[in-house]
Design brief:
Blueprint: E1 2-5, H1 23-29, E2 32-33, E3 39-41, E4 51-58, E5 61-67, E6 73-79, E7 82-88, E8 94-98, E9 102-107, E10 113-118, E11 121-125, E12 135-147, E13 153-164, H2 165-169
Antiparallel strand pairs: 1-13, 2-5, 3-4, 4-7, 5-6, 6-9, 7-8, 9-10, 10-12, 11-12, 12-13
């Protein structure tokens, strides 16, 4: 099920082209690989069934734009191709989800994060922990996502869609 959602918000971000930098240009431009790890979620955490996610294409790079005095990242830009195979481990049904969006992420000192996004990103929401119901989604479009220090995710779409991945592999 896809649904279009519009919500008022001010969207100001530095978004970058979605093509990865090579290792050679990475040294000159500041872009570096940002690989995604495989993951598992037990039944009930995201979908009604156990789910495994694994990148099948991962050319994501990141660039640290701003750091704190201790050297930890404060603002980081991400871009590049990412396709994650999401599998219902009970039945073997799977779907290759395109999560190749660009994002500017502000990492806050309390552990919270603020994302400004253009394009598709994979978003997992736990029970009672988001403005979207529990599930796995590809959120696509122009939007922001606030991840509170307790893990609560608030997605505010300026213009975009949500694609329920649990329904795709049920």
């Amino acid at each position: 099920m896809r649904r279009t959602v519009l919500a008022p918000l001010a969207l100001a971000a530095v978004l970058v082209a979605a093509h990865p930098a090579s290792a050679e240009t990475g040294a000159r431009t500041g872009w570096e690989p940002a690989p995604s790890a495989p993951w598992d979620a037990d039944a009930g955490l995201r979908c009604d069934f156990p789910v495994h996610g694994e990148p099948v294409v991962d050319e994501v790079v990141r660039r640290v734009l701003d750091t704190r005095p201790d050297g930890s990242p404060k603002r980081v830009a991400y871009k590049g191709d990412l396709v994650v195979r999401v599998t219902n481990t009970g039945t073997g049904a799977s779907y290759d989800a395109d999560a190749s969006g660009s994002a500017l992420v502000e990492y806050r000192t309390d552990g919270s994060q603020f994302w400004t996004v253009h394009g598709p990103v994979l978003v997992g929401v736990g029970p009672g922990l988001g403005s979207l119901p529990r599930g796995l989604y590809i959120v696509d479009g122009l939007y922001t996502m606030n991840i509170a220090s307790d893990g609560y995710k608030t997605v505010n779409l300026l213009h975009g869609t949500t694609d329920d991945l649990c329904a795709r592999i049920d």
